[in-house]
Amino acid sequence: MGAANIARKNWQAVRDAGNAELVAVASRDAARSAKFIEECQSQVPQAIAPAALGSYDDLLVREDIDAVYVPLPTGLRKEWVIRAARAGKHVLCEKPAAMSAADLQEMIAACREHNVQFMDGVMFMHHPRLEKMRSVLDARTLGEIRHVTSQFTFAGGDEFLGADIRTDATLEPMGCLGDLGWYCSRLTLWALGWQEPVSVCGHILQESGHGGGSVPTEFSAELYFPGGVSASYFTSFHVRNTQTVVISGTNGALQLNDFVLPLEGDTSRYDVVQSAFGGDGCVFVMQDGRQINELKVPANNAPGSQEASMIETFSKIVLSGARDERWEDWCLLTQRVVDAAMTSARQGGAPVPLEPI
Fold it and tell me: Are 80 and 1 in contact (CB under 8 A)?
């Protein structure tokens, strides 16, 4: 539903998943849909070229479609997710999922009422590396987790800041917080076992934009959890590509530097670091204590990649006929955290509790 650039990535993921078929692409006019299909089909051909549709409604009335992928701007998602649910279509939705937690609750409620699955498109949640990392945390290899820090940035440049949809104040008012901070918030919540933060602080470090206003283009946040556990993250449209995570415990740390988009190649990695400090008189030594863990997983756009696995997981749920509400709950908690960070930033960085549901 829509010919957004991110949809090009999922074009191939649908083909690679093995349990899904791309039936149609809908845009606001059929010519745009046809151009999108022609360009994608020339590079990554589907077995049967999808139909080019000239409206979103044309997509929803088709009986040969079970589910829709919604990469529309955030400002448009609520309407079309609810309409898709009412049409009996399962929904895979880009992030940030909604303009607010209240809107997202309505979207999820519509999906539950009409017995269709809702899932947000956080691809790293489907990478097999995450399961391996979970086993490290659950085994308490790192001891008691005390802090999670993450950073996700890219340097968009002047053209991006002045024209890209992600800096449009009307359609994407959360800017880099919604686009990048969503991933950092999700990774933090995953690492801490889906605990709810007690409070969240947010800080707009830079802002600009178009569409009648400004959006955060550089943002930092702190999350505070029960027992004094904390988390922090930094996102930016001004800083060259970074996507690092450090999960710190009383007995070591888990580190990776490509948590959103795996680095090029067929090997994914995470490190468990248990450094040791020693000294002899005037000589001080810090031993790295690094254990490198590697998995054979293609980076992007290939069978077995996180993109294909996301489509495969979503399709399995759809084909099973049994909804999995965990994905909706995780999405809503992420939205509440991001909302609280933005509210805090607009209030000068004061701590803001999560809105109750």
Answer: yes
Domain regions of the chain by residue span: 6-123, 127-346
SS3 334: helix
Per residue in 65-122, pLDDT (tens digit) is 999 999 999 999 999 999 999 999 999 999 999 999 999 999 999 999 999 999 999 9
Q: How many CB atoms lie within 10 A of CB 230?
A: 18
* Contacts of 138 by beta carbon, 8 Å cutoff, 6+ apart: none
Classify burial at 276, counting beta carbons within 10 Å of its beta carbon; exposed 0-12, middle 13-18, buried 19 or more: exposed
Determine the Cα–Cα distance for residues 309 and 150; give it in Å rounded to an integer.
Answer: 24
Could you confirm whether 35 is annotated as catalytic? no
**Which amino acid does the sequence have at 34?**
A
* CA-closest candidate to residue 313, choices 115, 122, 77, 147: 122
Helix (H, G, I), strand (E, B) or coil at 276: strand
% of the chain residues with pLDDT over 90: 95
Provide the 10 A C-beta neighbour count for residue 281: 5
Cis check: omega of the bond before 96, within 30 degrees of 0: yes
Query: Among all chains, which residue has been given the structure tokens 């993921």?
Result: 13
Name the architecture of domain 6-123: 3-Layer(aba) Sandwich (3.40)
Asked if 270 contacts 254 with a C-beta cutoff of 8 angstroms, the reply is yes
Tell me how far apart the alpha carbons of residues 300 and 307 are, in angstroms, rounded to a whole number: 7
CATH number for region 127-346: 3.30.360.10
Q: Crossing angle, helix 30-43 and helix 6-17, to 10 degrees? A: 60
Q: Residue 345: what are its φ and ψ, rounded to 5°? A: -60, -40
Token pair, residue 17, equals 């998943």
Residue among 78, 95, 296, 316 flagged as catalytic: 95
Rounded to two decimals, the pTM is 0.96
Q: How far from chain centre, in Å, is Cα 53?
A: 27
Separation between Cα atoms, residue 85 and residue 100, nearest integer Å: 19
From the list 279, 264, 11, 274, the residue with the least C-alpha distance to 136 is: 274
Helices 306-320 and 6-17, axial angle in degrees (round to 10)? 60
CB 273 within 8 A of CB 248: no
- For residue 250 the two structure tokens come to 């009383």
